[in-house]
Amino acid sequence: MKKSLLALAIIAASTTATAATVYDKDGTSLAVGGRVQAVVYNGKAASDVGDGIADHDAGLVNSARLNIEGNTKINDYVSAFAFSEWDMADGNKSANGDHISTREQYVGADLGDFGKLLVGKTYDAANEVLAATDVFEDFGARQQGSINGDRRTGMFRYVYDNNGFFGSVSYETAADETTVQGEDYDVEGGFALSAGYTIDDVVFGPLSFKAGYSYVKGQDDFTKTIKVDDDGWSLGSFDTFKIISASISWGSTDNGLYIGALYNTQRMKQRTNGFTYDDGVNEPVSVYGTSNSSFATKVKGYEFVVGYTFENGIGAFTGYNVSDVKLKEGSFNEDSAIYRRVPVYVNYAINDNFNIWGEAEFDANSTSEKDHQLQGGETGTMLSAGARYTF
Fold it and tell me: What pTM did the predictor assign?
């Protein structure tokens, strides 16, 4: 996963640790960075996270990212910055193919001790709470897995992080086909907030507490197309989406002992007056549902992680994830599933630019795999190994 940690690192530093500074003069700088990686998955993992691999077929997935970041000093108190990152073409038609897609893109102002303001396509304020357990590559972080990659356009975000105190607020404007819970929806607007406090040097490292809330409103045009796939019906619109998160982190993932925990709840409410059925093969057919029919998906659970990173760059992490998924139509509970998983991750950072890793995830008495498809995941043993060059 590691999406939340990357977002925090970019905002906290003027340039990424390995990015190459191509220009730095008179208070203005420009840096270029990115990564290229290849990961091999077993059949179960390919079905769950291996983009571009047929279900249950083991395979190798390659991918690349490119980013640029600029900074310029305006006066003694304010500097401006901009950042843009793209997922590059990978030649895999089931993934990015020959296309380049924008992953994150924003411009902002650094106000020094008074915080930072950024606007563009990025995460909302509550996303930063998730970083406490977002330490794995592909497995682990299952409770937050569908939301920690949500970067939406039209975002205004303010971040304050000084003297141990952390606070962030965000507001987002209307946008079509933007990411909510890992899927594309039309958004009317939303807001989020988070707060926290960090105590430095408690036994083996900093101890941090954070909590956050996020609210997203869908557009009001509830007459939508329902697209149907092998797993069932997927509504093309939503009414509201709410997230509550709280986390604790202790130590550092870069050196020594690290412990993290997260509690998270997500609730998406969907409503239709009438809709169109489209299976992607036959001509769309109008279907009229009950007036103001409501559908709700509620996911609540927790994540734990513990690990240790040695001075030679080898780090080992494991954890325990529980997700309780419930589907509801009107006042009736339609279906439910409980997901319990144990991730294991070993990483070797050979130097600042190159690392290799192995990862596995094991089941810990989840509900049946058929029921578990509610959350779109596998309950079998998943394995992967990868190598990454970061520049």
Answer: 0.84
